[in-house]
Amino acid sequence: MRSLALSRSNYGPPYTGMDAILIHLPGGPINGWFSGCNSVSRFSKVVTVHNFMNILFVLAHNDDEYFCALRMQEEIRLGNQVFIAYLTYGGIQAENPDVRISESIKVLRKFGIDETGMLLIGHRKSIFDLHLHERSVDACQDLDELLKNTAIERIYVMAWEGGHPDHDASHMIGVAFARKRNLQSQIYEFPAYSRFHVMTPLQTSSALLTTKASRMDALKTLASGFSYKTQRRTFIAMLPGSIVQLLVFGYQNYWRVPDERNYRNPPHAGRLFYERRFKISFQEFARNLRALGSLTSGDR
Ligand SMILES: [Zn+2]
Prior knowledge:
- By secondary structure, this protein is an alpha/beta fold.
- It has 10 helices and 10 strands.
- Helix 5 crosses helix 6.
């Protein structure tokens, strides 16, 4: 009979995506010779199999999956269940919200993800584009409610970078969720855009996950940008930066969100991109996000 033995304790620290499971192949009499040994015999074969981890991506808009698509594809390839929370709906250019959602669904399907993992919180709670910083508690509570029976083991959030207020608000909601579930060691951030760069981190930390994507994955991700017909102008503006990150570097880095970050301070010195573009000051943003409480205030 086939037996399974984990390469380390079944109940130890969270597995990384690359954890291998040692499978003792049925070896008949040969396996029988080693039946008294606890160690894995040389007749065992090491293979990588999925761990069925539940992974959560916390996003602001229907199209933000573009910025973490390589990692999503990698998680799916590892056999993990991917949940994607979208915390707003609609768009300030009067885009049809249903069209934006269907654009996301279409792109996710290209990456091998079906819509059952989509948590359309913005749509459920009527949190419109650009207003997440005013509705952070509603979004956070709904995320908790939708996942109350689901053990999430790793979280990806949009980086704290001052590009779009909804991105930074979704970051803080993801951090609050992680802290409530004691998942600080398993929360990673990925960049979208800031005043300085596209898809390039402003801040780094000591822990890093690197996605090693194939050129085909990178090309597929870049091409998916053209599927967002309602956001064409934005994606064209980001195209040069996207090409550099996806096709020249061919990978994306995910840095662990540092515990010591103080969210009372803006992501960087000087005027933030969203302050200039959307006329929302960091002071207003931070005042509204205080509603999330000490989970993200830096007072812990
Ligand atoms: Zn966005």
